[in-house]
């Protein structure tokens, strides 16, 4: 029997639907090792992420997950479902917020809604899609939000 091949990919411009809430699963549990590695790789020497003794005397009483790790993971959770192989470029981020902190051992879950889309005026065969990402922990508390503008391929235009 001859089988059709299905390659995992993100969505083309025409497939993004403003009436859908895309849930990105599985979630990602953030460990102490993840946090320390990300924090040191990114040269962020903030004691709140690295110094357990200092952080114990601060308002949260413990080290917190680096918010840039939270943001990176939030966006990363959406890639396979939305933009894998169909993105041309990220155009920008705005309205980034961290209403509650992530702690070591918390699991991040991501949802995305499309808030706008239009064909590019300067790049034929491509469109601009605005995505609103929301990250929640295992207690369903919102821990991060971000609006991301992306440039994606239209169907049939990708080289």
From TrEMBL:
Top-rank lineage group of the source organism: Bacteria
InterPro entries assigned to the protein according to its UniProt record, in alphabetical order: HotDog_dom_sf, MaoC-like_dom, MCH/BMMD
Pfam families recorded: MaoC_dehydratas
Domain spans labelled MaoC-like: 22-135
SUPFAM superfamilies: Thioesterase/thiol ester dehydrase-isomerase
Transmembrane segments: none
Family under the similarity heading: Belongs to the enoyl-CoA hydratase/isomerase family.
Name of the protein in its database record: Acyl dehydratase
Biological source species: Paramicrobacterium agarici
